[in-house]
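Model: Ready when you are.
Researcher: Fold this.
Model:
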Amino acid sequence: MTNHDAITDVPGLRVGHARVAGPRALSGTTVVLAPEGGAVAGVDVRGGGPGTRETDALDPRNVVRRIDAVVLTGGSAYGLDSAAGVMAWLEERGRGVRVGPEPSHVVPVVPAACVFDLGRGGDFAARPDASTGRAAVEAAAATELHARVGTGAVGAGTGAVVGGLKGGVGTASTVLESGITVGALVVVNAVGSAVDPETGALYGEYFHGRPAHPEPAVHEAARLRLAEALARNTPPPLNTTLAVVATDAALTRAQAQKFAGTAHDGIARAVRPVHLLNDGDTVFALATGAREPDPDAGPLALNEVLAAGADLVTRAIVRAVRETAEGVTGPGGDFPSYRELYGPAPLVDSRSNKGS
């Protein structure tokens, strides 16, 4: 299997992005598509201003056992309409909760969460709808297994901003010593910052042991440039970091919910502050169940998966910020990219990470 350091390294998962069309549009949708038969799922919402759909269905006390797709979208609560396009696509293929005697009698359960990016391109009404969601799921279905995943200002990360810098989509994966694969995909659009104000290094890189510290003169110039941009922009009222963590391990629904919860630690390492009242920070977890746990390992064997999920969310956030090459200057605001301010730098390769 080719390792692309992406959530698609988890066998069976596919990712598709779609962007809202138009010169004053800066929004889009990203779909994580599960394999045929679906995946066990969980969710953990910690932001004070979430915009979500069908998250209650993932409560382990409720009836839905498996889902077929997760939608991450721009457009704030309006953008949740994109999930309807994904539902329609799944229904046409008979994928969903069977509710009648015919194979076509299904109701697809499509959990979704949104980020606030309204007006980032200058047009407040330019936001994802059902057609955007359909385009994203079709893009996912058209990919090969283990395909590379687009990162940076794509899909739900098209209009993302983090602490005044251009945000975006990032992904990462690892194979644990047990042979279990764990992956993560994030959309970074936070009120908080990903950058240490004292050094210019990315907070998330401190957890890899080799933080990249820009030259003081470069950092000072970047700090002044960002301050100028922030002074010109109207502070957005809402922001959010979204993530999907996934594994090929067989998890129960309660374990999937725990997996989603511990993955929030990865956001807290890479963005400060997090989980504020104007954040909607939400993490979904997917478990395809292709690898049964070692019966001799005991219940604590799950710990390596939990730890890896948090580590990968941190690394995916670093990639999202670094791999967003270009900033945006337009009627919706001035949002320079980290690369424009600090220049390109090699990424820390942590694919040998064992979830410690």
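Researcher: Now this one.
Model:
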Amino acid sequence: MHDHHHDHHHHHHHDALEPAADAGNARRVTIALVLTASFMVAEVVGGIVSGSLALLADAGHMLTDAASLALALVAFRLARRPADAARSYGWHRTQVLAAFVNALSLLVIVGWITVEAVLRLLEPQPVLGGTMLAVAVGGLVVNIAAFAVLHGGDRTNVNLRGAALHVLGDLLGSVAAVAAAVVILWTGWTPIDPILSLAVALLILRTTLPLLKRTGHILLEGSPEGLDVGRLGDHIARTVDGVEEVHHVHAWMLTPERNLVTLHARVRPGSDDGLVLRRIHEELRSRFGVGHATVQIERDEPCPAPGCPPGRVAAAATTSPHSCTH
């Protein structure tokens, strides 16, 4: 049998604070979405009129920004839905999935900018520096505002971080466009436009790969960051009185804020199973920050079945009377 044991205070703490935090994050994403979408059209027109790749790249990036912010917003809405029979853990993972998709879309943008920049370097195009500068400055102001709104939210939320990285990449694109426009107006040297576009692509790549790696790790049920599964088992066996051995330890993340653990603990004969369970959960919560754990208590006893081979034992599991689930 299994025990889904939570500390009640900790459980209510998550339910009370996290929806409020997600609601605040959702508001920030909505503001950034309105800012980004409203200026995107102006940047597309400006890019076409001026002939600037940096502006068009930035406009393309703003288009995916708007899509990614809309995706992040949908994920926040879905994450508020309660758990049901088909999704016993609820919809929290939608935020991680949205961040993963956003990171992948950024890689596509980097590829497009790189190809276009190389083509522009091989065959330079005329650029209207004045128009380019005016639109680029406007884009920079909008992106700074959007990034400031997102950056002030929950730093640990991967969905918000994915949206913020999109806007940061866009902000860098605007900086590059402003710099390129100034150089073109000052010197008339148009290759600066694709060169700075390539520099922005590399910066976007540098910020995107860690997010892609992190969200991929979560979706693959990887162990929580900073949690050593082997050390966790050894610690429980060493510090909890009555525990002889801990095995079958599994740890993963529902989201970066929600760690889950399952383990089997073999206890000494005569131990109080309920007391051992409580102590295991206390250690998991206080030492490792795990608020949701499934623990199976096992005790080696002589096998009662007739004709049992010598040395054969049967595991007896006990469930804690304190159980609650999401």
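Researcher: Key takeaway?
Model: Confidence is low (pLDDT under 50) at residues 1-17, 311-326.
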